[in-house]
Amino acid sequence: MKPARFDYVRPDSVDQALDLLARYGGDAKIIAGGQSLMPMMNFRLVKPAVLVDINRIPGLEVIEDQGERVRMGALARHRMTATDSMIASRIPVLHDAMHHVAHMTVRNRGTFCGSVCHADPAAEIPMIVLMLDGQVEVASASRRRVLPAAEFLVGSLVTALEADEMVTGITIGMSDPQSGWAFEEFSRRHGDFALAAVAVTLGVDADGAIRNPRIGMTGVGETAMRMRGVEALIDGCHPDEDMLGEVSEWLNDNLVPNTDIHAGADYRRHLSGVLAGRAIRAAYARARTLRGKQDE
Amino acid sequence: MSEHTDDLVAVTVTVNGMTHSRRIEPRMLLSDFLRHGLGLTGTHVGCEHGVCGACTISVGGRSARSCLMLAVMAEGLEIETIEGQGTPEALSRIQKAFQDHHGLQCGFCTPGMVMAIADLLAHHPLETDDQIREGLSGNLCRCTGYINIIAAVRELARERGPLT
Ligand SMILES: Cc1cc2nc3c(=O)[nH]c(=O)nc-3n(C[C@H](O)[C@H](O)[C@H](O)COP(=O)(O)OP(=O)(O)OC[C@H]3O[C@@H](n4cnc5c(N)ncnc54)[C@H](O)[C@@H]3O)c2cc1C
Ligand code: FES
Ligand code: FES
To answer: What PANTHER family does the record point to (chain A) (predicted)?
Structure first.
């Protein structure tokens, strides 16, 4: 199918974009990479009256090292995030996750911020943003605000963004260099949306117990999630069969995944337990190795 | 800022080295612009939601889904399509490798495959079959079973050598 009619505007600055949003509000839609919006417009699931193309606004296609945090500008493409060497060394869990975000051709255009604004319940980026204390920079013509990812991501394809607002950038925390990490995903085809995916970072203490675990999951709920329940369960423990069994059980009791044409809820629950076990083990092994190097 | 509130808007793009100007509706997909506006029907349209890869072209030197771009978004950009590759008499290197390895049957997916492979060869390591498969994971082929396409890319990657 083809998109319904709309007016097209191509602002040259963020201020111009915000003026347009102030003028048209709910009738307008921002287009960034277009890799989620265009399919929905082609199917006429979305029919904006005005399309605001931000692709030519200078200064947005950036990834910035802020020391403790990294900032993705509104036009940081998936390809940039996936191949950024600072991210590969300082936030390896994001580097690994990017490997699973769509395919080469889609990654050339799709954006980090667009993925978070789209808020697909099976997307990898919102999960990482939740897990690593993401802060979403939101602007309108009359005010600026910064929302924690957990407040920004409201539900399946639903965010806290008002009609006259746009996201100008997102920051996430760098990982502790001593922490282990792992990313495990199952999808039908490489680069397709996850049936279930788990991301883990954790440290180990001198006794080999898990410390400061962070766990994110996607594909198994209304939104991507930070799994504080599982984090509490494994904090201070050694990852043996019993502990991982408890994790599976917890997930089985607490997750409410969707059933769709790709997989049923039971299967997704089962996958979550298996993937969480693998990811926790792998992150733990890495953390042990890193700690070993430090103790030498 | 450019703002369009009338029905037709002017767009100028360079396709395979030739510059074209047309007046079009903002909602015209780049794939339709190439096919219907310019008569370049080598770019195929399979799904129009980004899944099949048949419509893959190159925009500014990187592969893109032409069904997920509006023609107006391509204003001023350099585009390459399959028509820029070779002719039946003088196939491009990628096309020749497809011929040598029997990398196509019906040929519907082939223009998108070739354009994706051009990006892979220009920017990606392709040291292992896994990397080749992953690089092509966004392009569907319902005929070949991919084996011969992979073989063609393997040869092209060997010929190219490591990325510098
Ligand atoms: C074949 C295919 C496979 C894919 N597989 C995956 C996958 O495995 N994992 C995954 O995570 N994603 C996947 N995607 C989606 C892809 O990652 C998109 O790039 C991403 O979801 C949206 O980013 P975008 O820049 O393309 O946003 P757009 O499509 O331009 O916009 C998406 C939404 O966000 C809004 N928006 C965008 N930017 C802003 C902004 N700065 N401020 C306010 N609102 C904004 C738009 O108005 C729109 O509502 C896939 C896409 C395709 C076509
Ligand atoms: S037609 Fe564009 S990806 Fe299928
Ligand atoms: S050759 Fe027929 S779809 Fe690929």
So the answer is: XANTHINE DEHYDROGENASE SUBUNIT C-RELATED (PTHR42659)
Contact yes or no for B119 and A108 at CB 8 A: yes
Q: What's the mean pLDDT in A64-85?
A: 98
A155 and A204 both lie in a single domain: no
Q: Which residues approach ligand 1 with their CB closer than 6 A?
A: A 29-37, 74, 101-102, 106, 110-111, 113-115, 117-118, 120, 123-125, 161, 166-167, 191-193; B 50-51
∠A228-A234-A237 over CA atoms, to 5°?
155
Give the C-alpha distances (Å, rounded to integers) separating A112 from A144, B104, B164.
20, 35, 28
Any domain includes A57: no
The answer to whether residues A156 and A77 belong to one domain is yes
Answer yes or no: is the ipTM higher than 0.90.
yes
Number of domains in chain A: 3
pTM of model > 0.90: yes
Query: Hey, are the CB atoms on A191 and B72 less than 8 Å from each other?
Result: no
The strands making up A196-204's β-sheet, listed across from edge to edge, are A180-186, A196-204, A210-218, A225-226
Judge whether A248 and A238 are in contact, CB under 8 Å: no
Asked if B64 and A105 come within 8 Å (Cβ–Cβ), the reply is yes
Are the beta carbons of A182 and A100 closer than 8 angstroms? no
DSSP one-letter code for A157: T
Q: Is the CB of B50 under 6 A from ligand 2?
A: yes
pLDDT digits (tens, 9 = 90+) for A218-233: 999 999 999 999 999 9
The SS3 of residue B77 is: coil
- pLDDT band at residue B7, thresholds of 50, 70 and 90? confident
pLDDT at A261: 85
Residue A146's nearest CA partner among A133, A164, A157 is A133
Ligand nearest to the CA of A116: 1
Distance CA B56, CA B82 (A): 9
- C-alpha distance from B4 to closest chain A C-alpha (Å): 6
| Tokens read off for A110 | 């799709």
- Ligand 2 atom nearest B48 alpha carbon: 1
> ∠ CA(B94), CA(B100), CA(B104), 5° rounding?
75
Token pair of A22 as six digits: 């102030």
Looking at residue A259, what is its pLDDT? Answer: 87
Residues A140, A208: Cα–Cα separation, whole Å: 48
Q: What is the fold of B5-84? A: Ubiquitin-like (UB roll) (3.10.20)
